[in-house]
Each structure stands twice: as structure tokens, then as C-alpha cells.
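Q: What would this complex look like in 3D?
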Amino acid sequence: MKGFGMFEVDKVGWLEHEKPTPGPNDAILRPLMVAPCSSDVHMSHGGSGPVTDMILGHESVGEVVEVGELVTQFKPGDICVVPCCTPHWGGYGTQERFANNAHDTGLMHSFKFLQFWDGVFAEYYKVNDADANLVLKPDQVSMEDCLMTTDMMSTGFYGAEMANIHYGDNVVVFGIGPVGLMAIAGAALAGAAHIIGIGTRPNCAALAREYGATEIVSYKDGDLVEQCKEITHDHIDSCIIAGGNTGSVIQALTMVKPNGTISNVNYWDASAIFQVPAPLLGLGMSDVTIRGGFCPGGGLRIAKLLNLIENDRVHPGKLLNYKYEGFDKIPEAFQVMDEKPRDLIKPCVKIYW
Amino acid sequence: MKGFGMFEVDKVGWLEHEKPTPGPNDAILRPLMVAPCSSDVHMSHGGSGPVTDMILGHESVGEVVEVGELVTQFKPGDICVVPCCTPHWGGYGTQERFANNAHDTGLMHSFKFLQFWDGVFAEYYKVNDADANLVLKPDQVSMEDCLMTTDMMSTGFYGAEMANIHYGDNVVVFGIGPVGLMAIAGAALAGAAHIIGIGTRPNCAALAREYGATEIVSYKDGDLVEQCKEITHDHIDSCIIAGGNTGSVIQALTMVKPNGTISNVNYWDASAIFQVPAPLLGLGMSDVTIRGGFCPGGGLRIAKLLNLIENDRVHPGKLLNYKYEGFDKIPEAFQVMDEKPRDLIKPCVKIYW
Amino acid sequence: MKGFGMFEVDKVGWLEHEKPTPGPNDAILRPLMVAPCSSDVHMSHGGSGPVTDMILGHESVGEVVEVGELVTQFKPGDICVVPCCTPHWGGYGTQERFANNAHDTGLMHSFKFLQFWDGVFAEYYKVNDADANLVLKPDQVSMEDCLMTTDMMSTGFYGAEMANIHYGDNVVVFGIGPVGLMAIAGAALAGAAHIIGIGTRPNCAALAREYGATEIVSYKDGDLVEQCKEITHDHIDSCIIAGGNTGSVIQALTMVKPNGTISNVNYWDASAIFQVPAPLLGLGMSDVTIRGGFCPGGGLRIAKLLNLIENDRVHPGKLLNYKYEGFDKIPEAFQVMDEKPRDLIKPCVKIYW
Amino acid sequence: MKGFGMFEVDKVGWLEHEKPTPGPNDAILRPLMVAPCSSDVHMSHGGSGPVTDMILGHESVGEVVEVGELVTQFKPGDICVVPCCTPHWGGYGTQERFANNAHDTGLMHSFKFLQFWDGVFAEYYKVNDADANLVLKPDQVSMEDCLMTTDMMSTGFYGAEMANIHYGDNVVVFGIGPVGLMAIAGAALAGAAHIIGIGTRPNCAALAREYGATEIVSYKDGDLVEQCKEITHDHIDSCIIAGGNTGSVIQALTMVKPNGTISNVNYWDASAIFQVPAPLLGLGMSDVTIRGGFCPGGGLRIAKLLNLIENDRVHPGKLLNYKYEGFDKIPEAFQVMDEKPRDLIKPCVKIYW
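A: Here is my prediction, written as C-alpha cells for the whole assembly.
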């Protein structure tokens, strides 16, 4: 079968791989809609090391074409939303604290696509633990909204969850790309008062306001820390890092109040180094909580997010502003993600078979 | 000075009391806007025992006219929002868990008005621990919005907080009176998906939808439990009891899923008895959490709620649909609260001096 | 194969059933040590309805004799500790909140033995999701200690977990049978100060003190509520119900302070009815949290409990004070559990093949 | 009055200051037992900037000699335990999250001694908010045990609280000085299994084991990270930093598992800089929680810790292994703290008047 991926670092194109066959708990799907993600692009340029011969893509809605003999909840023909993070639920790894990072196997081991097997930019792709990881697409939810739950909304909302928001808190979101926009929407649905988005692109800023941002702050208008402190009278309860660079973490530490929270969902380059002077941590006494985490997986989480959409609380599909049609348009969508034109928020490809 | 209150059970009218004088940490205020509450009415009919000679009222925005010598944050002339629950912060009582029920003094001991001294339907009223309990009225927030934070919003949102809502949860709110309406708004700002309001009055139902209810269910249309289960495909994560009778608790126990939560903010009559068959508790094994609690107090909580209003997340002032003007209209507003005409949501009285 | 169980209500004996065969994720074990539980006895007398033809028993250490083709972590010959609660981890049911009560299947659906298939008082027994539910017996942990983690320690410690204990809290444990004793040990390891055990049997009282109880209170010495309040100067933070009757819940509600917690691990008879007057709930305002829950399952939990034992924090094997040897002694051990002689704490049977 | 303190950086001795007079909520005490702390020494060498003319000391048990007119719970003659951290409870600052860092005033503003007024190495010293901050010494608790709750136990136990320990977790404590030893005791009372203390001094190691450490690891025996991983089979749930240097944080990040917690109670020098490579944070995806915090204050916390001692859960007084008698021995005790002889754990001075 055909799939779009990387032959080697910095060399992408159509690969020809064997069609996957399902293990007893697996399902095989055909993609109906996919979205390239900046982490696909990052990987293609070597961000995850010298990967070779790997089909890319991890955001998809698909149609089940085959299931393993132990799968009972899904059958060929089912249209399913597929979480980007599909834990193996059959061991100890997911029984404690956070299932995304299996405790007995290792960091991000619940992220199967691209790490353990091919991704979703293929004619067929495999999903492990299908009964636990797949979600039936609700009729009332658009394909676009469904697709955006699989990573962008799940990750952005996780940023808001880790930020430990209480009613009336003031929250700063670093980055107003698709994950930052979803963190803004998540913060609004967690009871934040001020939600300040940090970014500069006009269409992202407009969508940020639609999702609940009360102010947009740009480095072009002065020091970010000062601007955020002024808006909130120096009461910033939480910062969510969903973009930027290592300096963003320093800025967050500088602006967040004692007792506050810093939540990170940004995937850092392996070469990044954080230099944190002790005073920014209140000499160790500030009671600021810092946590970075990976998008939680599993079907129930996605089902919960879809429930929010069905009840009109949020529509993540609005992120998609570059829409392509046809399996053969995947490279074009991927390229636009790589080039990031100034008005791009998130591209997708609708696929007909 | 004059104040509207109860001479004895079932006998209300204008009382003549001494103007209060401030202790070192107290402030004395004049009311600028007040709202009668069903608990004022309840007390007047003997619901809190044989109270005599007590000025009623505990929801107010007022103007500071005098402060004790230790008060540093407020001065005469300040327009303040006054929490209905004003804990004494200077002892152990508020240092653990929930400040509303002081741990070393007793149940609801943070509720000072009506229990320990006169209420706010008076020419002057006293607020203890002024620096900790008063909140400066923000210019941008309407008097009505401010007034509704003091009890209705704080209590309703507490119902939502105790309900332990996560993104995408389905929530049922028993009662769509003013507290229930605020519980609905609170549930929406906590990330609920379905929010089902139980009630029958049309204008409450309309406002419930505006605050975030997705469905309104009435006993007139059939069994409440069945209706709620059908809407949610039998997945009710939390119930918030903000009205109804002891049967509501039974219904909540019947409909909530194992692992769910029942939160109560309804003030029960001392004569009420709950008869709970063990199967409704899953024979003790259902992992359903049950908690009833009292409106948290203190200035910071109200400041946080005002911050939500300033950022346009919710406008509790919409509850006020019977508006009176003039100190002498307090009895009329009180009477309408007592008689509860079918279209009443919440009355208030604006006062000019 | 032979197994000891119930032909019908009130009729127990040796049944002859087919040896179970493993599904792909299952393991088949032979018991090496088992313990009858009061819930086995309860069921035999009809406490779970008109069950027929069911092999009893759910506490065991066993030897793997056969595994399904997808089991990778265990193999024939492995000596394993078997949780009494063995969730099916392959669906949505265990992905949210508490795995013990699967959210999409129903109350206690993670309790497989006795409900969905035969128990462990058999020559062979089946364990579902073996990789996720079995735990290798550590060499350094005695068979007795291992056996007592499977239900008694897991349940008792869950009682302490639900009791939300903080350093220096005062805790009352209703019942000093095996589960109550483990709740006492759990409360001590959660940082409780006073731990008052309620009970009368002398050997249980002695063991309670060994596990961390500071006082033992008996109804024979006066009113239980008064005694507990006196010891703690009326500061009881949490009550754990691990025995007694419906009156115990009333006593707990009477003694616990506002803001406190009541945790229940007692399995109530379906005919029990709780009659709770509203004042015992502070008229709905007391901020007391009430939760009853079922023993959590899964291998990781048991592995964690075994880790406590390996590090000498607690030795639950001391509960076993009636020890039998030989598969054919199961009926005798069961009978002693049924008759409950005054000095019985917990019986077990060591089995040789 | 006389007091031992610093004239300027690096110049300590007896100062002559005015006897403090109480404000309305204050108490004035005479010290009965005091302990120098490494932070007193740190300050004397300029660690908190160019402080001049300040009486040192913040750990004390004292006798009330005078109270302000609003103090109702204490009177002259009362023997009291005095928390080192004495928040001002009468404002918004202590109403949210963590009272130690007042949210509206600033970092560590609840630490009054040495920052806002003289410390306890004086003939008389002042305690603000006496009703909320003082604790009556229980007759059954030794002066030494009482003294050690005020900072060492409160801080060490806070390290364990922030470490988010669950039953059976493996915990590493960096540093086995007095705070580290208390973190070990706190971890044991929080249900940890392995508790590994990192340090080298033999008497501290012995006491660490008495308080619950299962292993002591020294850099002299090899790489610390490797040793800790080997002991726990690479399952370290939490690290508590209670000593060491910036490298300790790097080691903690290296050894803690994904989903784990790092808790810091070490007071860092203002010149310290943490250099953290992104891979140590799992590229931002590891779900490791990092928090450093300051000793919580207030009377209730100390009362809770005393309750643990009264019930024989722990005896922090064992830390005191250099004991002096007489007010005039304070300089000697201070000097020993400064010089830190190898066998020093913690010095104290008993004072007679």
C-alpha cells in the first residue's frame, strides 16, 4: 500500500509498505480525514533522531476495514475518531496516575504511531487495543470537529487541566497556534477570568478571542511580562506554554504569582537547555507548580471531548483553515505545514475512496 | 435605627435597633442594594427555631460609613460587595479544609448575619474582619451583578465545585431557582457537556438555557430519572441538588452512575428525614461521593467571582427580575419572596440615601 | 474438576465443574493458599440473590498452569498473587476515575469471581487480563502476607484512602475485623494521629493496637459517640465504616466534625435502609464528604501493597489466626468463617498439589 | 532588652533593642527553648542581602508575657509553641491555595521573624495574630519535640506532602540533615515503601533509619542515580530535595520516573542557576510535577503535628543532639550551627528566667 512519510531525515515522499494486518485486539482503518501536525514536520527534519522509512501522520478520522478476533465494540464500516495517543491498556503501565506515560515502559510509550509503527497518512493503518482506543464518530459532530479532538483539543485541554484553574483565575497562554487556541478554549471551560493569549498572527488572534481569550499580547508592543502583569494587576495564577521557546518558560516563571502553576504542552527540541536562576523559583520557596505533560490517550477521553462538542461548548474544527481533498493531496498539506504561511492555522485533507 | 426583620416567628415588620458600632476589625455599612433570600423567609417562619427581634437580610452591596481602628484596606465612602458568609479569620477555624464551617467553633459559624447579629435590611449593618471580608465594587461591574455574587453565585458555583466536574461530564441540576441557575452557570464554566436543569417555570427554563443548560426536564413530562437517563444514555456523572425535596436526593442516587458525585447546596428543614435503601448506595460499593456544603465566604472568593463577571464569563444580575427602589420597599420585596409568584426569580431593592 | 461452593442458597459442598480454559488474555491457576471471606459466606446464605451452582472464594495466591496466547508477562510455574477484583482493562470502563466500578458496564463489574465465573476454591481457576491483573509473588514476602493483600489490605487501605486523611487527623474505624484492622494500618500509614478502633474482641483489639490504633472503644463501656468525642476533644476528622450496622453510619454522622469525611467499605445487605435526619447532615451544609467504595483491583495496586510489605511497613499476614492445610480443608475453613468463633480473625488454607 | 543577632553581614553578637510592645492582635513571649537554624546562619553571612541590626532566630517555645487587647485565646503565663511562619490571617492573602506565600503581598510574606521584625533569640519577641498562630504546649509533649515542630518537622513534612506520595511509592530524600530527616519521617507517615536517604554522616544515617529510611545512599559508593535506580528497579515515584546543591535537582530529574514528582524544600542561594537540558524533562512530555515550597505556618498546622507526637507517631526532638542551657549560650549554639561539626544534627538552647 501507499503512504506518505519519510525515507530518511529531510527526505519525504510516497512510501510503499505492506498493508498492516491486525493482531487480536487491533483494528485496521482507512483514513477519511487527516491533519498534518507540526510534530510530523519536526520528525521529518530529524527532531526525533535518525528515523527512516516511516509513514507519518497521527491525527485522523477513519473507517474500520478489519478487526482482530477479540474486538467486540467495532466492526468494518464503522466511522471512528482515532486518538493520536493509543495506550496499551493490558498491562500495569496505564493503571497509575497518567496513562499517557506508561509507568513501566517509558516516556510517551502510549504514543504508538510513528514510534512503534506507521502513521495514518496511508491507505491503511493499524490501531492497537481497538475496543479501548477507538470512538464511534457521532452523527451530529462534523468530521472537522472530530478530527481536531484527536490531538489539538486533547493536548490543549490537557494544558488547561495541568494548569489547575479555579473560578476567576487569570491565565496566560503562550502561543496561539492550534494547541494554544485549544488551551484557551480549555481555560475558558475551566472557569478562567482573564485569558491572555501571547502571539502576533491576526487570524489566530481573532480565533483566540472567539475561543475565550480576553486579551492578545504581542512582543511587538513591549515586554511580554510587563504587559501581562499590567492587565492582571500582577495576579497571574497560571501560565500554559503551548508555543514559543525556552525563553517563554523564563517569562512564565517571571510573571506567575507565588502559589501559581506553569503547565507545558510544548514539545521541546532535544538540544534545548533551560537556564533558570534560583530567584525565579523564589529560591525554591514560591510554591509554584511546574508540569509538562503529554496528550492523554484512549477512547473515553476523546468521547468526553466529543460530548463537549455535541453540546455546543466548543468547536475545534474552526482551527482548520487550509482544506484539501483527496489522498494525493497529503504531500501538499504536509508542505504547507512545513512552510507555515503566516495565515495558516491548521491544514487537513478529506479523503474519498 | 430602623431595620426590617422579625419580631418573632411569623411576625415581620420594622424594628428599631441601636445603630451598630464597629469593633477594631469591623466596618459599618449602609446598604445600597439588597436582595431577600428564601432563607430569610424560611427563618421568618421559624425554620431556624424561635428567633426573635432580629433584622433580616444577608445579600447586599453597601457603602462603608465607619471602620474600626485596625481596618487598613477600606475607608468611609468605599462601595463594597459584602459576602453573605463572613468568617472570623483570626483563629484556627479557617485554617483547614473549608473556611465556611469553622472547624473549632461549629457548623456554619462563618455565617454571622442573622445568627450572631443583625442582617443587612437596616440603615446600618456591621461586617466583621472587614479587611478580609469586604470587596471593593469594581467600576465596570453593575450593582446587580455584584449583589448576586454574595450568595446566589457563590452558593451555586460551590454546588458545581463540589460536583467535581471534568471536561465532558454530564450534570443534572435539581432546581432552576436562582441557586440552581447559578449552579448551571458554574457547571458550564467547569467544562460540563450535558447540563440538565430540572424545573417547570418557563422564565427560569429560558434563563437556564442562557446560562448553559442543554435540556430542561419537568416532572410533568414523565419520570425524572428516566428522562435524565435517556438524554445522557445513562451516563450521569454528577447531580447538584439546588432545590426540590428529600425525594430529589433519592432520585439523584438513582440516576447517578457508579463513581459519580452528588453535591448538595439545598438547606434542608430540620424535620426532614432521608430514607435511603442500601441498593441506592450500591450496597456501599458504588464509589459515589456525596457532599452537602455551605456557601464559602471571604473577600477573595467574591473577588474571584467578580473577576469572572468583569471578563464577561457570566452575568448573575440577570437573576433579578423583580426590582424595587427605596429602603421602604424592602417589606414589599420580602413579601414577594415569601409569596413566590410563578414568574419570580429573584427580587432586589435599590436604596438611595 | 472439584470446587467448593454453593449448590443453591444455604446449601454448600463440593461441586464438580469443567476445568476452565483460558481465553487469549486469561491465565489458569491452581490455588496455593486461599482464604474464605465473609462475603463468600454472605453469598452462600443468599446475600447476593438466588445464586446456584457457583464455586466460591476470591482471595488466593496461586500457580499459573496455563496462559492464553496473548499473555506475555506470565508463564506456567509462576507463583502469583491474585487480586480479588480483576477489571477488564480493554474497554472504556477503567479509563475514568475508579476502575473498580467500570463506568460503562456497571456496579462492581470489575469483580469477576462469583459474579461472572467460578471462584478460587477449585482445583483450577481463571483470571482475566492476566498481564494486567496478576502479580508475581516476591520471594521475600510470605505467602500469608501476599494472600492478605488481595482483598483485606486492598479494601481496608481503600477505606483509609477514601477517608482523605491528613497529618495529625483523628480517625475512628468502625469494626476491628480483618478489614477494619487493615483500615487502621492504612490510617496509620496515612498520617493519622488518634486512631480509635470500635470493637470488643480482645485479640482483635490487641492486633488493632499493633497496627496503629491508639484507643479501642467498646459499646460495653458506654455511648460510642460520647467516648470517641471525649478522646478527641470533639475533633474527629474522619470515620471509616468497616463493620457494624446501619446504626454505625448514624453514629459516624453524629460524631464527625463539619468538613470531615465518612468512608465506607462495608458491604450492606440489600434490605438495609438508612434513616438519616437532616440535622445529622448539618441540614445539608456541613461539608462532610460521604463515600462508600469497592476494593480497587488490578496488578499494580497489589504490587504497591506488596512493596509496603517488602519494606516492612505492615504485615497483613498477622490477620490469619486459623490456619488449615490441604485442599480438602476448605469446607472446614469456610465453616469457621460462617460460625465466627469469638477468637477468629481470619482463616486460611494452605494447599499442596 | 538583649538579643543575639547580626550587626551587619558577617558580624554577629549581642544587640540591645527596645522590648517589643504588642499590637491589638499580638503576643509578647519570652523564649524557653530556641534552636538556631541554618537559615539564621545563612542570613548572617549575607544570604538574604545586606541585613543589618537584626536579632536572629525563628524556632522557639516560649512563655506569653503580654497580649494585645484583642487576643482571647492566650494569656500571660501560657507556654506556647511558636510556628516559624506566622501569617497575617486578616486579609485576602491567606484565603487561597497556600497561606505560606500570601497571594496579595508576596513571596514568603508570612515569614515575619527576620524579615519584618526581630527574631526569637531575644529576651522578648513578638508574635502577630496570636490567636491564630500560637499553640498551647501540650503537657505530654516534651519541650524538645515541641520545638522541632516549629520549622524542621513542618518543613520536612511539607516536603513529603508536596511529593504526592501514595501507598507503596518509592521515595528518595536528598539530604539527611534535620529537614531531610523529617521529610523521611513524613514520607513514612504518608505510606511510602522504599525511602532512600542520600547522605554520608553516620549518626544522621542511623537516625534516618529510625525515622523510616530503608536505605542510605552515599556518593562515596558510586553514582547516586544508579544506586537509587538499582534499589527501586528504576521505579522512583518521588524525590524530595532537602539538601544538596543544584546538581541534586538534576539528579532527581534524571532518576524520577515519568509521572513522578519532585518536591523541594531547600532554600537556594540567590546566585544559584539551574541548567536543565530538555531531555531531563522528557522534552516537556514527562508529566513530572516539580514544586518547591515554603514551610506552612499557623497554629492549626502545628497543633496537628503535635497531635502526631502525642500519639507517638514520630518524635522530632531526637534531632536535637547538641543541647545548651542558658540564654547566654545562644551564641555558642549559633556558632556550632555555623561550623557544623560532622556529628551535629541540630542544636538547641534551654533557657531559664
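A: To summarize the key features: Residues 32 and 233 of chain A are 48 Å apart (CA to CA). The mean pLDDT of chain A is 95.
Q: Very helpful, thank you.
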